[in-house]
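In the current project phase, work has continued on tokenised descriptions of protein folds. One protein thus recorded appears below exactly as we store it.

——
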Amino acid sequence: MQDRNLAVRPSMAVLAVLAVAAVAAVVAVVVTSATAPAALAGGPGDPVISESAARRGIDVTVYNRDLALVRETRSVDLPSGEVRLEFRDVPARIDPVTLLVTVAERDRFELLEQNYEFDLLSRERILEKYVGREVAWIQEDGSRLTGTLLGMSGGPTFRVGGEVRFEVPGQLALPDLPANLRDRPTLVWLADSSKRGLLDVEASYVTRGMSWQADYVLQLDEAGRRADLQAWVSVDNRSGGSFEGAKLLLVAGDINQATPAPEMMYAMDLAVKAAPASGFVQEELYDYHLYALQRPTTLLDNQIKQIALFEASGLAVKKHYRLQGYTHFYRGAGRIDDKPPVSVFYSWENSARNQVGKPLPAGVVRVYGRSSGGGRQLLGEDRIKHTPADETVELRVGSAFDLVAERVRTDSRRLAEDLYRHDFAITLRNHRSEAVVVEVIEPVGGFWEVHRSSLPARKVDASTLAFDVTVPAHGQAVLTYSVDVRY
């Protein structure tokens, strides 16, 4: 069964010599081969070879999770009759069962069979093909020593002159390349062509090893109340293939990858709205969002490419502080003495009236401020999920240096068989020059009711209790409360 997640690197063209001198068990293979012109028919019985140079157009749709749909059109010079067509320069991590082939002249071309050949040239694979065969070693004086390759498990084992050896001096030489080894992954088709001549063949297929995410830069003003937002997309190509001059499309949303969705095979046929030639155009694609780059780009293998998505200026942001509790504080008995950090959050409304109002693809938001000298300084970063327009974005950027919290469980007692009362005192100290409000979040869990509290309690949901604590500048505030919990 073929490995769909094969991530090997294609070799260079057919080897003339595979050799490394002065190292034991090194392979040298002497082969002569002529490189066939891309997409040209050879003599009778010869395969027609189509390489990337024959591409007339290529579209690449990249999804968020290790998946891309490639659609490419190549011009192929076909003979008449049955033909073996080698479709080269496809990604090493292609999923061949997703291949869809179409031609403009449907009555002229019929695809009978396809094979995905990915048994690639490598030192180990060449030697594995020679197990049980005679090999030779070229000595420094030019003479040859012959022997038999017995096996490759754990490394090569040879029989030379009636002895079993693991290392033999000299340069290992093989008479030719074994059959059925390729220098790069190749789709091999058996097709029937009704007449000779050029034909445009379009192939669509899914490949692993490609993904994208959004990267955002949020630049705060000196007061921390307004910000500028820059959005970039980062496309990561580890598919084992390169795509030059491609039309790039990005799908934001989490698709079900159990089976290829029907939408994936015609997503790129959708018309996109007019836009500036250099940027992305965004549109709805069923339950997802599609971003189409309005200029060709090149996606090289083992490359991360960043492209500007959009910018927004002057959006209003809010800073708030939060102290987060834990459910285990409300289980068991005994003293709890905790000094948790107070987290710093920034949030903004993703709306048109707040200068944004765009669907925000999942990614990392990096928040920057400015020092007194005007230099940009990183304040923190957080990851956001796919966020539609008119929703709120909230980022945890770090912990406040000048806010100190202490939590003590002052009492815990059993009121009934399954009912407990817990008393807490939370002290918040503020070393800043202005007063702050700290939101205290307490995930009580179970069935609970506040017995008493020094500040108004707020029920966030069935499991969560919250308080808003105002802490004066260079001062402190103490929150005390009792909660009855049944579990």
The longest strand covers residues 303-316. The helical segments are 123-129.
